[in-house]
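Researcher: Structure prediction, please.
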Amino acid sequence: MIFVNGYPVKTAQISGFSSLTSTQKQVGEKLEKSRESFYYSSPHQFLFEVVMRTNIVAAANAMRDSGAGFATFVNSRCNPQYWRRTAYGGFLLRSDARPSDAISDIFINGKRYGFECTTAIMIMMYKAILETIGAGMFDQLFNGLLLYSTEHDEDLQIIAVPSGDSLPGDVRYVKNPEHHPNTPQWQGENLIDLGNGQFFGHGIGTGTIGEVIDVLNQKRMPGATVSAFLTAEIIRPNYRLMSEYTRHPIRRLLGGVI
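Model: Predicted structure follows.
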């Protein structure tokens, strides 16, 4: 259910909704039909969320097709034209590289990159916000990027929801509690909800939750009896706060106060 300025509304009543693409409209309609309640102080906040959710799904599909490999931190690799690989396997933006170019390069020259699934989630989030706010604004906000596990720039506002409806662009996690001790990279898989019953996880690919669980169950220790399972928590950007970037491109959000 959608609320704007405290009142429940239908997507068709929201100013600007009719100008969205058919894919974006489908995402907006899923928000409207959700059992969760989504509150916005303006139509702009709602439209921003719809557009960025759509761009997260697009980023997941683009990563799937990029040729980027799966690699543990020990074996991670990156394009040195844009990134400096750290001793712990992260990627630090070169001082002479534009953040927008560096993120885009991962999707253009994917075969030069290898990283694990958590870093992949952050990369897809950066790609989505880049496509949502544009290169100029992105470069102002995200200079000095470090890609490493869940580390992320403070301007990439990420929140955790204890439970709720899984919606396009949401991050889900399938935990594998009895993974083989020799392969800790299979202790779980971070996934992007593609919105059609399919999920993308870097290293596994695209499939249903059941198919992801089947793959992880093959990575368990001998004699394991506990199946991998989808956890309840949902990770998603704080769209309402981040929507202000399109209005105040050079002002950072500190504690949600502008």
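Model: The first strand starts at residue 2 and ends at 4.
Researcher: Thanks, that helps.
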